[in-house]
Amino acid sequence: MMKKVHGELPHWVDTALIPAVNLVVALLVAGLVVLIIGENPLEALGILLKGALGSVRGWSYMLYYATNFTFTGLAVAVAFHAGLFNIGGEGQAYVAGLGAALAGLGLEFLPWPIALLIGIMAAMAFGALWGFIPGYLQARRGSHIVITTIMFNFIAASLMVYLINNWFRPAGRMAVESREITHISLVNLLPPSPLNAAVFLAGLAAWFTWYLLWRTRLGYEIRAVGANPEAAVYAGIKPQRVIMITMAISGALAGLMAVNEVLGVHHRLILEFAGGAGFVGIAVALMGRSHPVGVVLAALLFGLLYQGGAELSFAKPAITRDMIVVIQGLVILFMGALEQAFRPVLAAFFFAPEKA
Questions:
Q1: What's the whole-model pTM score?
Q2: Radius of gyration of the chain (CA)
Q3: pLDDT band at 173 (very low <50, low <70, confident <90, very high)
Q4: Do residues 29 and 299 touch, judged by C-beta distance below 8 A?
Q5: Omega of the bond prior to 229 within 30 degrees of 0, cis?
Q6: CB distance 104 to 329 below 8 Å
Q7: Which of 275, 244, 265 is nearest to 94 (CA)?
Q8: Residue 342: pLDDT above 90?
Q9: Residue of 130, 147, 127 lying closest to 138 (CA atoms)
Q10: Contact, 181 vs 262, CB < 8 A?
Q11: Helix, strand or coil for residue 132?
């Protein structure tokens, strides 16, 4: 192949080849870790893949995890495009569960389709509100979005413990949870797995995010503010307004995770149902290059790691659940912090050195 003297790498290298190389390197390093503890890396990889892809049950659990990660990954990706680092997806999803539960428990007199639609909208609204507040604080008060969103995760956790304990838990019940939501529960697709109709909602959310960012005026404003806030002002865009709207949209997308968990899986409001998916969404957005298609693919990868990792830790007791977290951490390390580590090598392959 003819090498260019200089120039930009092809687009497909940045979007596909570099992530693939990083993923392979991460798996190789993870294989070394598995080898050090005395297990066969190839056998472990086979068990992991079979646990996620070798049965209908494995596929259903992988898609269930991927649904959550798609919602939170899209939430982080939208904020990234505006130059914002939303660390608060966990809290936004958690508070959104309050909206879903209020609708599920209080609208039993309405027809099922209407009550379900209101339940979804309520989850999005509560998540949007919890995302809007840090956005307002940054836009109007100059507070750092990373600090405020982290702190709002802790506030959400404390608030939900209080509300579930004192307002939602039925009298005489020891478990810290609300009564069962039966009227607007989502359809379970493959019982007894947790996969439900929220998986289609995740696909719709990905399409909406793509359309918003690349086919609307607001999406152009979001990307313009993220690229250069000063230039955006000269173009007539108000960065403060865009920041607040973007964080509200980000919170609403994270809030859809509550629809999957509260209305689709648990059918009640429980403690800590988010389970860290808000933080995984950060890695998913980074790995997916903040593009909806990339986010969905990265969410599927992390869904595979979660489901296959659970089967692997069961089949190989020496590879504990903590070891699976290490493997996930290596993927995040090479796909995030070291994502450009192999770019110079690829650049040397595509471009010939200039002659003196």
A1: 0.92
A2: 22
A3: confident
A4: no
A5: no
A6: no
A7: 275
A8: no
A9: 147
A10: yes
A11: helix
pLDDT in tens, 208-254: 999 999 999 999 999 999 999 999 999 999 999 999 999 999 999 99
Nearest to 179 by CA among 250, 104, 73: 104
Q: Which helix (H) or strand (E) holds 286?
A: helix 277-287
Tokens of 80: 């990234």
Examine residue 191 and say whether the peptide bond preceding it is cis (omega within 30 degrees of 0).
Answer: no
Q: In 10 A of CB 45, how many CB atoms?
A: 16
Number of C-beta neighbours around residue 121 at 10 A: 16
Query: Which amino acid is it at 164?
Result: I
Give the separation between CA 71 and CA 353, rounded to whole angstroms: 44
CB 259 within 8 A of CB 120: yes
DSSP, residue by residue, 54-76: SSHHHHHHHHHHHHHHHHHHHHH
- Mean residue pLDDT of the chain comes to 90
Distances (CA, A) of 284 to 55, 148, 295: 24, 21, 6
Q: What share of the chain is helix, strand, coil (3-state, %, to 5)?
A: 75, 0, 25
**Residue 263 near residue 101 (C-beta atoms within 8 A):** no
- Tally Cβ neighbours within 10 Å of residue 300: 18
Per this entry, what is the length of the chain?
356
